[in-house]
Amino acid sequence: MLQLIVQTAAAWVIPVFIFITLVYAVIKKVDVFDSFVEGAKEGFTTSISLIPYLVAMLTAIGLLRASGALDLLTKILLPVLTTFNIPGEIIPLAIMRPLSGSGALGITAEILNSFGPDSFIGRLASTMQGSTDTTFFILTVYFGSVGIRRTRHALAVGLLADLAAFIASVIICSLVFH
Amino acid sequence: MINLIWFAMIIIGLVVSAATGRVEAATDALFSSAQQAVSVAFSMISVMTFWLGMMKIIERSGLIKWIVKLLRPLSLLLFPRLPRNHPAMHAILMNMSANLLGMGNAATPFGLKAMQELQKINDDPSTASDEMCTFLAVNTSALTLIPTTVVALRAASGSLYPTEIVGTTIIATFCATAAAVVLDRVLRSFTQKRR
Prior knowledge:
The structure holds 2 protein chains of 2 kinds.
Chain A: H1 2-27, H2 32-40, H3 42-48, H4 51-67, H5 69-83, H6 91-96, H7 101-115, H8 120-131, H9 135-146, H10 154-177
Helix pairs in contact in A: 4-9, 7-8, 8-10
Chain B: H1 2-19, H2 23-61, H3 63-70, H4 72-78, H5 87-100, H6 104-120, H7 130-140, H8 148-156, H9 166-188
Helix pairs in contact in B: 2-6, 3-5, 5-6, 7-9
């Protein structure tokens, strides 16, 4: 039942949203095409202005991944997690989640394939993947696009929220799926 | 801060790759990541152009007023000092709606629009304002009701119950957002510029 609702919602939300937007605008006598084009003009410059920030951040993350530094961090964290009965296979995902969206999604896919999506670790990985966003990407792109250099406490808050999501995922999945 | 983190990431990457004998692979990764960054920006052009066009229609037609009304309790709680009919508030609420509904690629265009509007009312254009920090806190913790990507991924990898993680995900993301909002409030005063 829930599955049907979620899958239907996921498929229909965007078309329904566009339908309501356009019909409402026409009722209110707005020139829809002219308005769309006027707003859309900003899309190109905004996207292109992100390139230097994206290159800076993604090269640093790509280098870290390829160097083996993340594997090293996994080895250091392993004994800590096993004392709390958290499966060690989840560590690479926890480290990658704030750094790289595509990287984390790749790790989640790997976990789902090798352990099965309906295993405990598969469910835990799914919950972790869905419960936070890529902190470094959002910070770089959002602040970069308007030229903010001093980001204050935003990075600390983003990373602590990722940690909170990680801990919450472990606790909730242990309660629900064990 | 960002200068130090970036420096540390690069240097650690270089030193570790030297120690593990992966210098060549690391150099390759450096430039393939740069290539990837440019293609991310280019693939954002299409999405950004489309949703910023829709945003303009939503503003012109006044549909935005309904969205503002609907999410009023949330906006009062998170952004008490932002006037509720300010363009920044409009874009923030559109971003949140997109995230809540799992409209993946619509959230970023609305989010960037929100940052541009917030920057217009920022006293110091090189430093993040309180509102920007709160907005980022909500965004990095990904408050959502429909985790579309994960459900699709689970279905694709042959799960019998792709959606059984929706409940746990909503609770976990709510915990993360609550933690982020509280931490933002607590840390805010410590990072304010001395006047």
